[in-house]
Write the structure tokens for this entry.
Amino acid sequence: MELHVTLCSKKDLDTLVQLGKRTFIEAFKEKNNPDDFNEYLETAFNREVYSRELEERLTSYFFIYKSAVIVGYFKVNQGESQTDIKDDNAMELERIYVLRKFQGLGIGKWILNQVMEMARAKNKRYLWLGVWEYNGKAIEFYLRHGFVKFGTHPYYIGKDKQTDWLMKCEL
């Protein structure tokens, strides 16, 4: 399987917004209240939010390609750009999504390995993330790859207060 990763820039803004919405819809639309879900989509996946984040020095988005086709993306945060921990010794994997039609091919594992290598190259001690407590498939995936639960935090989809497990993997 020929995969490669590229850093996103402002020129990728529209593609990133579309991919972000599409993958989030594929993953979570059926499991959420439609009104809350649509409100969240409009506030979290819009050009202004992504444009601002692409300018953040400690936040990076990456596309994953299988040959010349974008199959997914991920977002990492460091330092003050992390959503909770804000530890200079850590890197946060805030988003990791693979388009539904490319799932089951080992792409998620490949992405996770790439992110771990990025974190190691930046001398981080651990990688952490938040995952919805009802996303059993993702939780199992992270547990298989050395992550452990170390806490929780609230995550809002519209007005619906949900709980994310905080998980980390020592590097």
